[in-house]
TrEMBL record:
It comes from the Bacteria. Residues 121-140 are annotated as: Disordered. Keywords: DNA-binding, Transcription, Transcription regulation. Residues 23-121 form the HTH hxlR-type domain. This is DNA-binding HxlR family transcriptional regulator. It holds the Pfam family HxlR. GO terms for molecular function: DNA binding.
Length: 140
């Protein structure tokens, strides 16, 4: 078993044969779309996290899915994986400099989502315990 858990460079690049390969919206969605990536980026924007810390923050995500999402974010250059020491080394994840450029999108999605929740549930919805704690604005 290899100790190198990094995704292959370019493993998640857009296929040039895809009909939307040149569409900027498609490229953005491939990089940060899906069920978990914006939430992962939100928590990494607040502070670097160990894998287990992210697993708790982004619950109910599974271990396997979090691993896949982090590898994809790392392959796209949005997240850095920092290994501190020898194997088994503690690993921390943090936003890369390039990853910080996506924070306005993350914050706008959070603000829009809050407005959408208020529109659908009324102006004062009771906060849900399952809201993942994503209600606070990013302060970057």
């Amino acid at each position: 078993m290899s100790s190198d858990k990094k995704a292959r460079p370019g493993a998640y690049l857009l296929a040039t044969s895809h009909p939307l390969a040149d569409c900027p919206l498609h490229a953005a969605f491939v990089a940060v779309g899906g069920k978990w990536k914006l939430t992962i980026l939100y928590w990494l924007a607040r502070e670097p996290h160990h894998f287990s810390g992210l697993l708790r923050r982004v619950a109910p995500i599974s271990h396997k899915v979090l691993t896949e999402q982090l590898r994809e974010l790392e392959a796209d250059g949005l997240v850095e994986r920092l290994v501190a020491g020898r194997v088994p080394a503690p690993v921390q994840y943090r936003l890369s400099g390039y990853g910080e450029t996506v924070l306005p999108l993350v914050e706008e999605a959070r603000v829009w989502g809050l407005a959408h929740l208020q529109r659908m549930r009324g102006p004062d919805p009771a906060p849900s315990a399952a809201a993942l704690g994503c209600g606070d604005a990013l302060s970057r």
